[in-house]
Amino acid sequence: MTTTAYLLTIDAHDPTGGSGQAADLATWAALGWRGTSITTALTAQNSYGVQGVQAAEVALLRNSLRTLLADGEPAAVKIGMISHAAVAEEVAQFVEARQCPVVWDPQLASADGSEPWAQAHGGGLAMRLAQRADLITANRAEASALLDLPAWEMGPPPAAWINAIRSRWLEAGAPHRAVVVKGGNAWGAHSTDWYITSSTVLPLVSRRLPRSAHGSGSVHASVCAARLAEGWSVLDAAAEAQLRAHAGIDQAIAAGPGRPNTRTDARADSDDLPWLPLPGQSEEAPPDFARLSGQIGFYPVVPDADWVLRLLEWGVCTIQLRIKEIEGAELRMQIREAVQAAREVPGTQLFINDHWREAIEAGAYGVHLGQDDVHTADLPAIHTAGLRLGLSTHTPAEIARAHALRPSYIALGPVFPTTLKAMPYRPLGLERLTQWRQWLSPRYPVVAIGGISLGQMSAVRATGVSGAAVVSAVTQAVNPRLAVREALHIWPACADEAVAQAMV
Ligand SMILES: Cc1ncc(COP(=O)(O)OP(=O)(O)O)c(N)n1
Ligand SMILES: Cc1ncsc1CCOP(=O)(O)O
Ligand SMILES: [Mg+2]
User: Fold this and answer.
1) Measured between alpha carbons, how far is residue 310 from residues 313, 314, 359, 450 in Å?
2) Would you say residue 140 has pLDDT above 80?
3) ipTM of this complex
4) pTM for the full model?
5) What CATH code is carried by the domain that includes residue 492?
6) Pocket-testing residue among 302, 415, 421, 465, ligand 2, by greatest number of atoms within 8 A of Cβ
7) Where in the sequence is the domain holding 455, given as residue range(s)?
8) Where is 2-[(2R,5Z)-2-carboxy-4-methylthiazol-5(2H)-ylidene]ethyl phosphate bound in this sequence (predicted)?
């Protein structure tokens, strides 16, 4: 029997269960991971905060780590509170000898600021932990103390902060390494976490909640460790962690008269989504794109205007024209022809892929854009022209990017392996599709795409998404007419429902 992969938290014992090891283990259980824990310190605490700390005995700590390793290497390590330098030294040696992803969530003081542990990270220990970590998650006070930087409250991180983070914590390592400076303890309408690498500084913005909760940093960091162990990028891990921590604070559990505990298995929805503004875009969300006028259901994506005409005849209501190889006058003519034909069938929602200028010119119902397209498309022009916007997403960070643009629907994919085009993304599968669909509800209709055959459409529909976009299942069907009839039977298009409603 092979050992089940495991995550390791090296953190303090919090008797309330709200933070540290207990919160990490509960978070990992909620994510389907086996968690293990090594204790750096025992604490006396309750909902009012930490009342006392006793550091772990170093020989026992070393023995615990060595004994655990005999069962196998961890898939990722999360380091939390360390109250004494001797413990920090032991932990640094341990992680320096590992190959797996490491998340360091420094804890320098309890929320009331009563227990300063900064001295435990002196003598170069903070630098060693930082330089071994793939991700450092620190709030502003912690980063300020560790880097000896003046406080920073509002707006983007000052240049002195970015320079210090890069030169002391990041530059020695690989470019994928990052620091997330969390914004929970700043103020303003939003709470912004700043994601900083050797080459980028990105804001991950959340709606500020009217309260804080004990252990939100532990939940955040442990989600990051789990997702790094699964091979997600640091930015994707940070985006999902922010979403889950936000939901956990929003649904915090009362633990006494003081602060409530962050819920480790909170169900996140679209109110919890962080958003990742485009470069130069303000943190303020732009106005929403127009809502869809009908349901989506079966959503074929086809390569030319003739296909659109045929689908309209066959009763399909939501269609995408995805022209890849034609340009100039012929492209404009096809888009105009398809848009004109779609306008003549009430209830039709025709999206034009990529070609947003021609779509505006033709007065299309909507456009569908990919992640790269949003950097070059004139989104305000599409909005002003009243077109709906659909956006492709494949990862949590891309979802955060899409949420910054407030589109009319969000597509998630690839759900299954697709042969249509090479994609650098792992298929989501139905479980993750269900999960991400929940994150996007109730704000966004969700379209599933990628490798969906007619045989899988019922299962995709059961995840609660609003529609299934398919290419090959229609365009490469032996009998496309029959395939469309079958698909409309499984998931009726809005035209059918509009007709049905009109007949009632
Ligand atoms: C409904 C839907 N979802 C995703 C896509 C993919 O769009 P994009 O990422 O722009 O890639 P291309 O289709 O342009 O290759 C889509 N077209 N429709
Ligand atoms: C364009 C696109 N974007 C994500 S998956 C995909 C391909 C969908 O094609 P198919 O339905 O044939 O797998
Ligand atoms: Mg595109």
Assistant:
1) 5, 6, 20, 22
2) yes
3) 0.96
4) 0.95
5) 3.20.20.70
6) 421
7) 297-503
8) 451, 471-472
